[in-house]
Amino acid sequence: MINLVDRNFTCLRIDFADPSWRESIPSEPGWYVIKTDTPLGDLQSVGPRKHKAHIDIPGTIRTATTLLSLGIAISQINAEEYVVYNGEAKNLRARAREHECGHAKTYCLALSEYKILAKYRWTFCYVALSTCQVIPGDDKLVRLAVEQAWRTVHGWPILSRK
Questions:
Q1: Measuring CA to CA, which of 43, 44, 82, 90 is 20 to 30 A from 60?
Q2: Residues of the chain scoring pLDDT < 70
Q3: Which residues contact 69 (CB under 8 A, 6 or more apart)?
Q4: CB atoms < 10 A from the CB of 43, how many?
Q5: Around 63, how many Cα atoms within 13 Å sit in the side-chain half-sphere?
Q6: What is the spatial distance between Cα 109 and Cα 103, in angstroms, rounded to a whole number?
Q7: pLDDT tens for each residue of 72-108
Q8: pTM above 0.85, yes or no
């Protein structure tokens, strides 16, 4: 199942200056990963989050330190892109927007709030549930199970908390 998801990922470069990058993302359920070439030190230096619901990037990295030391978390190799977040969504396009722009009441990265991050490459990769024909219908439990199974195969993204 994870191989099927991995084979079907479509990746788009996040453009903080132009929201049109999200237009081709379907407004349907599926899974996604967020990759970057941002060094861990720069992620740790982004400062406080704007809204309480947003992901505390430095705090999340501090708690992931143990996972990194055990080799369970995904880490950057040289200066290449690495997955820092993965998830499932009822609406992939809306979730991409939340992770880029933020929403005051939504658990998200809100990447555009941190100016230092704009100088790095950020990529949103997604696979719509409809492209995985072996999964019938839309069931949140199935989406969550695939999200967790992906982490078992690939490692824990350092900005994922649950």
A1: 90
A2: 133-137
A3: none
A4: 21
A5: 11
A6: 9
A7: 999 999 999 999 999 999 999 999 999 999 999 999 9
A8: yes
